[in-house]
Amino acid sequence: MLAQSLRRVLNTHLRFQTLNKRMSSTYANFDLVKRVKLGFTDVEVSKWRSRITGLSVVHLDYEAPIVNGYFAVGTEIFNDSGCPHTLEHLVFMGSKKYPFKGIIDQLANRGFSNGTNAWTDIDNTVYTVSTAGGQGFLQILPIYVDHILNPTLTNAGFVTEVHHIDPKGHDSGVVYSEMQGRQNTSGDLMALRLQRLINPEGSAYRSETGGLMEALRELTIDKIRRYHATYYVPHNVSLIVAGKLSDGTNGLLSVIQNQIEPTLIAQGYNEGPHPKGWKRPFLETSSAQRGPIRETITSTVEFPEKDESMGELVIGFIGPPPDEYLEREALDILGTYLTSSPVAPLNKQFIEIEHPLCTYFYFGEDTRATFVDLPVYVGSVPTGELDKLPNLLKECLGRIVTEGIDMTRMSMVIRRNRRQLWSKLESSKGDTFSGTIITDFLLGPQDGSGLLPAMNEMAYYDTLEKWTSDQWTSLLKRYYVDPPAVIVKGIPSASLADKLEKDEKERIASQVAKLGPEGLARAAEVLEKSKAEHDRPIPIEILKSFPVPDVKSIAWIPVQSHQEGNSRSIPAGRTTDSSELMKYIRTDGSPLPFFVEFDHVKSDFVTSHVFLSLATLPNRLRPLISAYSASFFSLPVQRESGHRLSHEEVVNALDNETVSYDTGLGVNSYFADMFRVSIKVEVEQYQSAVQWLKDLIYGAEFDKERIQVTLAKLQQAIPEMKRDGHTVMSAVWTELLFDERSTSRANGVTSQMDVIPKLIKQLQESPDSLLKDFEEIRKHITDPSGVRFAVSGEVLSLEKPRSIWHDCFRNVLPEANLQPVPLASRTLSTVGKKPSKKAIVVSLPTIESTFAMHTTKGIEGFNEPRYPAQRVALEILNATESFLWRYIRGSGLAYGASVSLDNESGLLSFSLYRSSNYMGAFRQGALVLKGLVDGSIPLEDTALDAAKSSIVYAVTNGVASPGRAALASFTNQALKGVSQYHNVDLLEKYEQVTKEDILTTLRDDFLPLFNPDTSVATVVTAPSQADGISQQLAGLGFEVGRRTLEASAEELAAGEVDSGSDGETESDTEGEDRR
Ligand SMILES: [Zn+2]
Fold first, then answer.
1. How far apart are CA 207 and CA 204, in angstroms?
2. 339: CA distance to ligand 1 center in Å?
């Protein structure tokens, strides 16, 4: 107690000092534009601008182990050339002062970061970096800004990073591959159509800022250079920094003043924030002309898809001006009111019915100059219903306007939004506001007067809580019922899929013919020369001049931990003194006979989790877990108190009492053979949360109608899922490597597209048998030998931390011998136990690139002595701008390439994401590994240092919020069986890993990934490429099986295709080769 109050006094004192220090409103070239202190959080925001160069700086100051940077540029473009997006990529290719590709990431990694990143939106490009602690951040800042404002923009960079023609005559390049993977997806096609219809000619809001493929093929580096010269100027850049720096805001400004400003001034930027002739993008240009929509327009977009059963819909409305914050907040809440749960008005009418008209509504908001956009997205609409739906929606909204708002539910929605904002503020602090600050820079008033109104969300909740039903309905009427809208219907088209494939083949053939052998040779030469230019090694001295920060400078969040019940196990290792927690819990009732772990962190919230083992679940019931999970929170419940609640009452009560609730398989992609339920509440609601856990698990009634609704929704979502290359690849991979005991495998999209129609049929024909199956699931997962509870959060303020568990569960959970945590390694298939030779090639008409995964045996277990070396090796290969990146992404062969270790299953994998040239990328991967092992590609000490530093970031980030720190403590001790701070303990072990260790593991463990004798491959690709890939894989020595996912849901329901549950490569092929 004494210690605590003393600390408080010291804190007050310090705060007083900082306030004094901050009284000044200038710092060298920088003038304070605005300082904002919000009443509801301790985040302090100050916005500064250089009166010389016009550069803006915003610091969001608060305590947190991670520092985040967002460096924003306003980017306006009036065509589809993709200048903003291609430029975003080229910034990372080197700067005038640091003319080496990838140096920025190697330096960032050394500074406790996981590398840099960036995004390009319709009106801005934002460059990001996050570091553990502030030292690395301030070191990297001036180098990063030099890259943004003075990139090299070489021709060689354009060739590999943007677009080139490969030696076979195919178009390639990192950006090109990326757009190839996106451009013809329903989402992109529909978004572009909507933009074109909502914004008038001459508006930059019409443009595809990513660059259309046809435009990228014509783009030149000169155009990009001119674009850079116009928009990448200091008066159009804002450096936004969120987090704690050792010398506060002044430390930040001093780095910018001394290391950034002089270069800019020397370049002639000295005309202040608004030089003569400068037009603020979107505000002072023709893009600001945005009208209301004059009349309703309906437009149809076809997208390539063999399964024509489900379409999509987006309806565009125009909202209020961007600075009408109260009204924007009200519209956000209205969207939540209309759609947030099974009892929301739109869900009740359109989704929670026997034949759903869609699977979701999403009321979005896009910030734009003059007026914001209000798009409404409607997912998975049966193709036959697409025409009707917009009118039905309008009628439904009109009825709500006439009948009025359910004010009880509305006030619940507002209070819940408020709780969720609190919770978000606690877990990500000032980062919660990064989007708002970026928008303020792009569209807000220059004098900073927009900052406070933009961030003052809690004040708007206060006002909106007093709104009447009439105020809400008039808002709904004004924005969604009365005005005309732009309706874009997305219709799946099998013939378009064929046409695209045919056209692309013809285009490539004519391109090859036109180039001729000489043209192709010349293209190959250009590519080789460009690559050679990038391969120029970064001088080691530059890297070494960048000091690696001290791990001790990072402040970890302490977690007090205590376990109850049998099978307690606290493995040795670093711990926090938990005697306070233990004492506190022991004052509350008697010890518990079942397993509960309490993890205390300072917080306003507490989350109760249960992990239920699925180990003994009969395999035939495993595929039902998706449906069980999806219906979990929306079934009628018989409460222990004797009350029976309808499903609507359950949903309303949960929404009323909690911050959030969810179910899932395991945690953080581990332990998928446990069914998890989590309920997060404010501290006062803790007992209610525990009671809910009990009642939801034991008291739910498997109601036929509710199950029917759940199954119909799942069924309808499948076509959208199987359009996605990555989702399909994961499912096929799981089928190959795991057997029928694996819950993940049974619930992947390829299994579900088969199972769900059968369940629907079963429910119609013999409903009792299916409802009995659900009862049986409950019986198995509640077996006392497989139940583990976790309480994470503010345990020390709970009134009945322990006895509430006794009160709720004593009758259902007798003392039992807790069985070990079920690990995925138990469920490996024959192939999974010894991966060899097998390759599955799936052709998927909705994609134009390739997703692939090659898998071999890896180390298994959470405390394996070989793990530290492998972990560092993974980081060395994967780091941004490290080996795989340089050799594969850098050569334009794929958008992403990485290696990953699943140490629960004991599988090591090499994955390619959105690859435009899969075989080339695979060969390149093999080449890098072999080169490193035989020494022809040198492994520098600096790469080792960078990898180890980068892991520091990953570890810090994993425990950076109170919630994450508490959950990690539980996962480590109760599930992985390792020490409380295992991840932090490992940092010392990584430190000791030598170059020799790395080369050994690369040779022994990673090289087998590229040998067909010791690996298996799963490939999902465009139909046009499936034949070629299959032949090449066979040529390498793989036994290739072919698959398609073409069968429609109806065919499956009719039972024409057999279940895939009993054969790893069982498939609905159409007479294709299966070698
Ligand atoms: Zn990109």
1. 6
2. 32
Q: Find the 173 Cα to ligand 1 centroid distance in Å.
A: 11
Q: How far is the centre of ligand 1, averaged over its atoms, from the C-alpha of 85 (Å)?
A: 6
CA distances in angstroms from 342 to 336, 418, 680, 692, listed in the order given: 12, 21, 19, 18
> Of 606, 630, 812, 808, whose CA–CA distance to 709 is shortest?
630
**How far is ligand 1, taken at its centre, from the CA of residue 552, in Å?**
36
Helix (H), strand (E) counts: the chain? 41, 29
Quote the ligand 1 centre to 170 CA distance (angstroms).
19
Distance 106 CA to ligand 1 centre (A): 20
Asked if 401 and 473 count as a contact pair (C-beta separation under 8 A), the reply is yes
Q: How far apart are CA 1028 and CA 1034, in angstroms?
A: 10
Helix (H) or strand (E) holding 682: strand 670-682
pLDDT tens digits for 756-797? 999 999 999 999 999 999 999 999 999 999 999 999 999 999
Residue 583: Cβ within 10 Å count: 10
Give me ligand 1 centre to Cα 58, in Å: 26
90-139 pLDDT, tens digit per residue, is 999 999 999 998 899 989 999 999 889 999 999 999 999 999 999 999 99
Report how far residue 239's alpha carbon sits from residue 984's, in angstroms, rounded to the nearest whole number.
Answer: 31
Any idea which residue has 């332990």 for tokens?
671
Q: How far is the CA of 666 from the centre of ligand 1 (A)?
A: 32
Taking all residues of the chain, what is their mean pLDDT, rounded to a whole number? 91
CA of 89 to the centre of ligand 1 (A): 6
Ligand 1 centre distance from Cα of residue 105 (Å): 16
Classify residue 716 by burial, with Cβ atoms within 10 Å: 0-12, 13-18, 19+.
Answer: buried
Q: Count the Cβ atoms, other than its own, within 10 Å of residue 381.
A: 24
Q: In angstroms, what is the span from residue 104 Cα to ligand 1's centroid?
A: 17
Of 18, 7, 87, 79, nearest in space to 46 by CA: 18
Contacting residues for 817 by C-beta, under 8 A, at least 6 apart:
566, 567, 785
Question: Phi-psi category of 861—alpha, beta or left, where left has phi over 0 and alpha has psi -120 to 50?
Answer: left
For the stretch 943-977, pLDDT in tens is 999 999 999 999 999 999 999 999 999 999 999 99
CA 121 – ligand 1 centroid, Å: 11
Residue 259 CA, ligand 1 centroid: distance in Å:
29
Supply the pTM of this predicted model: 0.88
Q: Which domains does the chain have, with CATH numbers?
A: 2-284+500-544 (3.30.830.10), 560-824 (3.30.830.10), 834-1047 (3.30.830.10)
Q: Strand ranges (DSSP E) for 565-669?
A: 595-600, 605-613, 637-638, 644-645, 660-667
pLDDT above 80: residue 490:
yes
Residue 18 alpha carbon to ligand 1 centre in Å = 41
What average pLDDT score do residues 573-600 get? 90
Distance 47 CA to ligand 1 centre (A): 29
**Cα 188 to ligand 1 centre (Å):** 14
| Packing angle of the helix pair 982-992, 941-958 (nearest 10 deg) | 180
Q: What is the DSSP letter of 1074?
A: B
CA distance 771 to 636: 14
- Residue 864: how many other CB atoms lie within 10 Å: 14
Measure 137 CA to ligand 1 centroid, in angstroms: 24
For residue 82, report the distance from its CA to the centre of ligand 1, in Å.
10
CA 899, chain centre distance (Å): 19
For residue 531, report the distance from its CA to the centre of ligand 1, in Å.
19
Sign of the dihedral through C-alpha 395, 396, 398, 399: positive
Give the Å distance between the CA of 814 and the centre of ligand 1. 55
| C-beta atoms surrounding 1031 within 10 Å | 12
Tell me the CA–centroid distance for residue 94 and ligand 1, in Å.
Answer: 17
CA 207 to centroid of ligand 1, rounded, Å: 16
